[in-house]
Amino acid sequence: MDIFLQQLINGLTLGSIYGLIAIGYTMVFGIIGMVNFAHGDVFMVGTFTALIAFLLLTTLLGITSIFLVLAIVLVVAMAFTGLVSWAIERVAYRPLRGSFRLAPMISAIGMSILLSNFVQVAQGPRNKALPPILPDVIVVWDSGSYAVTLAYKQILIMVVTAVLLFAFWWLVQKTALGRAQRACEQDRKMAALLGVDVDRTISLTFVIGAALAAVAGVLYLTYYGVVNFADGFVPGVKAFTAAVLGGIGSLPGAVLGGLLIGLIETFWSAYFSIEYKDVAAFSILAITLVFMPQGLLGRPEVEKV
Amino acid sequence: MSKPMLSVAGVKTQYGKIIALHGVDLDVNEGEIVTLIGANGAGKSTLMMTICGTPRASEGRILFEGRDITHMPTHEIMRLKIAQSPEGRRIFPRMTVYENLQMGAAMDDYAHFEGDLERMFDMFPRLKERLHQRGGTLSGGEQQMLAIARALMSRPRLLLLDEPSLGLAPLVVRQIFDVIRELNAIEGLTVFLVEQNAYHALKLAHRGYVLVNGSITMAGTGRELLESPEVKAAYLEGGA
């Protein structure tokens, strides 16, 4: 019971991060029907931006308030990562729109390699570490032999994720921009006939997806304290798995999928074998694709024609 | 007569190597209802879409209120206050009726949203009953009403209607044509209407054009066309 509770906390933390990344996959897929394979590396760029911003703020400028630093880091990471993603869409995907279906996907793989290699060269291949952030923990429950703890940073991760998801849900459901986005997703030509600037809407979708990935990057960095140029790949593919599991194209599905993948991975590590945790996560991808390709929340309603 | 509101001159449209329109000339004056009739595959919808820049005309010029819109991006053309209720209605299936109407009003910056919404309910009471239902769950007739209402929500200067009667019960068709007549008579809305239902369309319209295989073959007032033997033989006999 005590280990179960601890793993639940850990799993939800990890799942929050996957969920935030998964939204970017699912939104882009929804609007242009393409799997943005560079999205994981965009997330990694977010972690590095956060790392650099963090070090600059703490060592060079000597800001000591951790919450102020984190707030600035969040904004900087979201802005820079959003810009990178905007540029990628503009340069590598938009010119290929209307080309054969595989073209933007190949281009995305190219962008993925470009980003990870660029960071490898610019930042070096080794792990980059941060001094521990928010190291304190709360003991939730102590059975005598085992203490279930909730770290401050886990609370931070869950709170930031919850707030952002709410803001994001509001944006998509209630604002004109969100409506334009959904309209482009359902019928791009009709959206244009109603005066929606489709190219701009697609660009903004990339920026928003990247900004959420950047938040995930900041949280990831806070949680693990180390990053590496190759860190885009595995979390990226897991977040993609989360999007597929939840039903690609579905925003609530991406969050649900993220939480499930986080929990599965954590429980697998705790009860079976930590070495095979990635195998467990990717088996889910294969099983979902074979037996339930529409995912958990993908397009349930029947449409009349 | 002053300059026409919409002027299509020598417009040619191609899908790859297939030529859909062979140099079409046509004018719509302010305050008019103009109809374009023709058989299936004559190019009526293609012309409607070409006016909106999707697909683009490969030759010729399209002017709206004196402005050349031939090469403008679609969304900019529409923002000049042209609205289209397109072929196949193209309701956003996973948006509610209310959201579909909001999409229409976006071009008007929601300036008259509440008032216009009430107007639409007066014209099409069914939409009020269905307001929070998803577009994809509406019947064909309801979708057609929604498509027209969505177009009107943008407060257009020119309304393009592509086969509003397609697949609808005669009663609904009459209701929709009454709405068009009323909007034109009371508010002076300019309407360009594409129809297969030639009889109703020609009775409603001030002027009409006949499109055959991508070319305009006849033009005249609604009455003239209704009485012309060629039109009678090709589009009215046994039909209507």
From TrEMBL, chain A:
Residue ranges crossing the lipid bilayer per the database entry: 12-35, 42-60, 66-88, 100-122, 151-172, 202-223, 243-267, 279-297
Membrane topology: Multi-pass membrane protein
Subcellular location: Cell membrane
Taxonomic superkingdom: Bacteria
GO biological process: D-alanine transmembrane transport; L-alanine transport; L-isoleucine import across plasma membrane
Family: Belongs to the binding-protein-dependent transport system permease family. LivHM subfamily.
Protein name as annotated: Amino acid/amide ABC transporter membrane protein 1 (HAAT family)
Record organism: Aquabacter spiritensis
Organism lineage string: Bacteria, Pseudomonadati, Pseudomonadota, Alphaproteobacteria, Hyphomicrobiales
TrEMBL record, chain B:
Pfam families, A to Z: ABC_tran (PF00005)
Cross-referenced Gene3D superfamilies: P-loop containing nucleotide triphosphate hydrolases
Domain of life (superkingdom): Bacteria
Keyword tags: Amino-acid transport, ATP-binding, Nucleotide-binding, Transport
A GO term for molecular function: branched-chain amino acid transmembrane transporter activity
GO biological process annotation, one example: L-amino acid transport
Record flagged with keyword Nucleotide-binding: yes
InterPro entries found in the cross-reference section: AAA+_ATPase, ABC_branched_ATPase_LivF/BraG, ABC_transporter-like_ATP-bd, ABC_transporter-like_CS, BCAA_Transport_ATP-bd_LivF, P-loop_NTPase
All residue ranges annotated as the ABC transporter domain in the record: 6-238
UniProt family annotation: Belongs to the ABC transporter superfamily.
PANTHER family: HIGH-AFFINITY BRANCHED-CHAIN AMINO ACID TRANSPORT ATP-BINDING PROTEIN LIVF (PTHR43820:SF4)
The protein's name in its UniProt record: Branched-chain amino acid transport system ATP-binding protein
Organism: Aquabacter spiritensis
